[in-house]
Please model this.
Amino acid sequence: MRKYFGTDGIRRIANTELSPELVYRVAKAGAYVLSKHNNHTPTILIGRDTRISGTLIESAMTAGFLSYGANVKSVGVLPTPGVAYLTKKMKADASVVISASHNTYEFNGVKYFSNLGMKISDEIEEEIEEMMDSDKLNDFSAVGEKIGTAEVRTDLLDEYVYFFRKTFEEDFENFEKDNFVVAIDTANGATSVVAEKVFSALGIKHYILNNTPNGININENCGSTHLDVLKKYVVENKCNLGIAYDGDGDRCLAVDETGNEIDGDRLLAILSHYMKEKKTLAKDTVVATVMSNLGFKKYAAQSDINFVETKVGDRYVLEQMLKNGYNLGGEQSGHIIFLDYNPTGDGILTSLMLIKVMLEKQKKASELCEIIRIYPQVLINAKVASDKKERYKEDEEIQTEIANLEKEFSGNGRILIRPSGTEPLVRVMIEGENQEYIRKKAENLAKLIEKKLN
Model:
């Protein structure tokens, strides 16, 4: 069991659980582990989102890197995928994003990326943890001329904007888009510094919402986790599409012209269908997690697209893509990875891909969504004893109930049981055709799990 890193880096309450002292150790240990095989002075990029604690965490992170002898380039507020892109572009040895993604402003976090712009593996995170708690950490202190230097490189944001221009500018110049308008919700987060620049550069008419970060309003009733304001805005202002990013900009959800949500499964369906038509979908395969809706699996089968399933987490989606040469993958939550462009989820890239499909096909977003039927889904948390989370697998009564439900659904429903990685919970997810019916079944199963595992 890892002590510091979770499924997406380290994420805690800033300046208490995520103290400057802890961050300093994370930085120094990370600099050692990620650059120990280099024979040159390592260079590490640091980017962050708009949280009030961002500069505090960045200062501690910078101190840790400089103490080890690494040089730091601070790119300021920038989406996670922007930092990942620049890491590779600038040939840096590693990078760090300071963000807690979709969490409220009190939280902050640390995510490491390798020199290839990819999230580091579980094994490397474990090695960093081992070094953090080791007496050896003090042995890696630079002295004299070996101490690292830091510089501010917020100008590199323009390189990220240029990436979108070179990718989409020529196509968008040829599309009829005079009557096309999109509403963009930047969640008062990292995309607030770049989204308007990108959409203006590509000549896409847009309204921009929740684009005035003040350090404490990131994700506050806005962005991809709170779509109600965007849905209302899209309908009232007769927009063709609504786009919502999360706090660090690696996720994107959308809203069609009628105010209906387009989640990650629908996005993957639309984009995989388009790429298959264009013969650009590598091995006619899409990668997604066990949380993908049953409707997505049925869409893939009907469209003659291979569906490869991984455990929850975009890093595991990416691992499968890299291992087998696939170029499209993602999660229901809106992490979509286009490996031909960037090795991490990129909200702005995903939204522009969707807009490209809409403009090229001259179809409404709601029409594009017709290729997939999403089944109702219910998620109930069963509170259990921390040391018993895995025991549902051996409990005969629980397994019998699960087997009976699977038999009853007979291919038109699905049960997924998943212990929480961070809390004393077992998550019960059921999909089926009738929302009320599956809710009752999920609640009953959760009660049984609570009864048997406490």
